[in-house]
Amino acid sequence: QKCLSLIKKTKFLNAYITVTEEVALKQAEESDKRYAKGQSLGDLDGIPVAVKDNFSTSGIETTCASNMLRGYVPPYNATVVQKLLDQGALLMGKTNLDEFAMGSGSTDGVFGPVKNPWSYSKQYREKRKQKPQGENEDSDWLITGGSSGGSAAAVSAFTCFAALGSDTGGSTRNPAAHCGLIGLKPSYGLVSRHGLIPLVNSMDVPGILTRSVDDAAIVLAALAGHDPKDSTTIQDPVKPWMLPSLNDVSKLCIGIPKEYLVPELSGEVQSLWTKAADLFESEGAKVIEVSLPHTNYSIVCYHVLCTAEVASNMARFDGLEYGHRGDMDLSTEALYATTRREGFNDVVRGRILSGTFFLLKENYENYFLKAQKVRRLIVNDFANVFNSGVDVLLTPTTLCEAMPSLEFIKEDNRTRSAQDDVFTQAANMAGLPAISVPVGLSSKGLPIGLQLIGRAFCDQQLLTIAKWFE
Ligand code: GLN
């Protein structure tokens, strides 16, 4: 009830696209009954959770914040949604995002932008007063980051205890950093993607946003596991439930990738990054500088691979099977064209066009195949570092704290989201687990997160170190 009333009170944040009040209340009632009867309870029994609106939910509209899927009601639950429900979680609603999870601000969905709850914190407001007046109060808010900004705002505003995001290039970790939360991207293959409407199949992972590392571990334990409906899930997952307390970090080796010290990095983030490295060192860990030499190519490489997969994935939205349908009086070709023009925003259409270009027969080798080779080099960079004895990498999550919306929207979304993913994207290319942990506040009183990247399928170790670090 408290969470539902907070959802209503914070409606202006635009965190939710659909609030599933009736569903949540019914589930809460059932949970109460189980409790009263002394029946066995799930790990998430009675816990309010929210789900990003690109996960299919049976009987509940699933829009991807796009006109294309407005009104689309899936006939089945994504595996991760089903697992949350099986563990007794209460579904509070479906959260807002950038259209089809393309973006890093959560400003681009058809239902309007998500506002960062920290925009309204006392400390930030006080600082804001010193700024020159004249801006429209309505536009005076900070972005959440994205594309899982609705999930981040929902947890940050206490409307739920955990939320599912998706993470293809940083979409869970980026908003977690901007909203002062834990954002976990599990290893690729640990958690099923079945029912997650794809962006880049080879990089998409369901992500978890929570207030603490322990909470993230509990949710991961509920979600992880082989799924016959996702052939990329592994058979034998680790069970990271109940993390051990790490008292001693002296056996750990922490790598600091030197290529991550980019000129665009804000001074405040850099200084917290240094402080964190010093903390590990002063507690006895070995902290070493390492090199990931192909880092500079990861964003360009991502652009080719992402758009190529987008061009192929989006072919299913033809106006016949799902959601929006254009003018039926036209030819089939024209029906496709009007459907897609009306259904997709310009970011999605732009990516379909770029991807189609990269996949043209004459371009395939020069762009797509070359990008795959570069991806291999990036994967090898990580392998070399981990093989040399490094346990985790410590990096910033984002270049700076959450930006004011006006500043963010001024910049071209495509350029912006390319820059924003500089620290997070490569982990998706390599399928590695990564987590953003809030480490402090900026001088404006806004949260800053740092990222830990671990070895593939060493999610439990990563979470244990993150717990020590949080
Ligand atoms: N910002 C990246 C993009 O727009 C990543 C998005 C994501 O992780 N879903 O493609």
UniProtKB/TrEMBL annotation:
Keywords: ATP-binding, Ligase, Mitochondrion, Nucleotide-binding, Protein biosynthesis. Residues 1-121, 143-463 form the Amidase domain. Its EC number is 6.3.5.7. It comes from the Eukaryota. It catalyses: L-glutamyl-tRNA(Gln) + L-glutamine + ATP + H2O = L-glutaminyl-tRNA(Gln) + L-glutamate + ADP + phosphate + H(+). Its main location: mitochondrion. It is an enzyme of class 6 (ligase). It is found in: Mitochondrion. The active site is at K52 (charge relay system), S147 (charge relay system), S171 (acyl-ester intermediate). Residues 122-143 are annotated as: Disordered. It holds the Pfam family Amidase. The keyword Nucleotide-binding applies. Allows the formation of correctly charged Gln-tRNA(Gln) through the transamidation of misacylated Glu-tRNA(Gln) in the mitochondria. The reaction takes place in the presence of glutamine and ATP through an activated gamma-phospho-Glu-tRNA(Gln). Belongs to the amidase family. GatA subfamily. HAMAP family: GatA (MF_00120). Subunit of the heterotrimeric GatCAB amidotransferase (AdT) complex, composed of A (QRSL1), B (GATB) and C (GATC) subunits. This is Glutamyl-tRNA(Gln) amidotransferase subunit A, mitochondrial.
